[in-house]
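Internal ticket - ligand job 321, flavin-adenine dinucleotide:
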Amino acid sequence: MIENGQATGVSYLHDGTPSTARARAEVVVSGGVYGSPQLLQLSGIGPGELLQDLGIETVHDLPAVGKHLQDHFFVRLAWRCAKPITMNELANSLPRQVMAMARYVLFKSGPLAANGVTAGAFARSDPRLERPDLQFNFTPWSYAARDRTGAVPHKFPGFSLSAVHLRPDARGTVHLKSPDPLAPPAIRFNFLQTPYDLQALTAGMRLARAFTRQSALAPYVTEEIVPGPNINTDAEFAASIRQTASSNLHPVGTCRMGPAGNPGGDTVVDARLRVHGIGRLRVADAAIMPTVPAGNTNAPSIMIGEKAADMMLAAARAGAI
Ligand SMILES: Cc1cc2nc3c(=O)[nH]c(=O)nc-3n(C[C@H](O)[C@H](O)[C@H](O)COP(=O)(O)OP(=O)(O)OC[C@H]3O[C@@H](n4cnc5c(N)ncnc54)[C@H](O)[C@@H]3O)c2cc1C
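stdout (structure tokens):
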């Protein structure tokens, strides 16, 4: 709800019943990278042309709302393991699962005490880069495919290494498809937008293979099963990446922070997370990150929430809101 250029509250559905809540001080949008731009656009704050096409009254024409979507993109490699020491054996055996559960309940130890990603590394896809642009996650399990219930583990011992591209060029969008607040928005990532995006993942796959040839790991490798030994040239890697790579679920950027009217750097919120052009309205979630961090996004998102709370309290104490 916006009156005279200021956010005054929210209207919402509770168990299907419409309701409203008025804000004494401020409204904070924390719907995440897809939900926050959706909520702003539904409220008339966003790209004027898009809102007009959908019949939504433009309260404030802010083109960056829903732009600059960025995410880590990753590709997975898997190997058959020479020893029966992986999580696949656990996933395929009820007695082992019962044992693992008992061990965890009694001693808080064993396979269920681990988080599933047991080793990691950061590396550069090109030695000329100043900082790492690849993250590797090692998991002591492997799977043949995903179905609706999740990953289906291989029947034999296996392990996986995923190569994650941390600094992709690709930028996408989150834009409303409909003025219906219950309809999902259109999410477009534009992954692999530049040659570098593809080259980085190709380098990541080659590096992952190199890791498994090291003397510490080599005794555990029987054969590569994903993508398999037939993938060797740049073109073969590219085809494999296009077919199998996916989001690493670290999206950011759709309400990004920066100075208002910054030429070329169109932004949504200022350094105190206040939405440009609208009073008493902030966004506090991963959507405000100007670029994706070269690491996981949960801790930075929590930091943004904590910092937003501090800034709002400071403003309230100073009588600024
Ligand atoms: C499967 C998965 C695994 C992940 N693993 C990791 C990991 O291991 N490490 C890591 O660092 N990061 C991980 N991430 C990323 C991390 O979870 C996110 O970066 C982080 O949660 C972002 O926080 P947020 O507050 O921006 O958004 P969210 O946590 O997505 O919170 C947004 C909330 O808003 C609600 N919402 C949206 N729209 C509306 C609406 N219209 N009305 C009411 N409510 C609404 C949503 O339901 C949600 O609860 C993972 C993400 C996923 C999906």
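Auto-summary: The chain has seven helices and 18 strands. The pocket of flavin-adenine dinucleotide is lined by residues 30-32, 35, 39, 249-250, 285-286, 296-299, 301 (CB under 6 Å).
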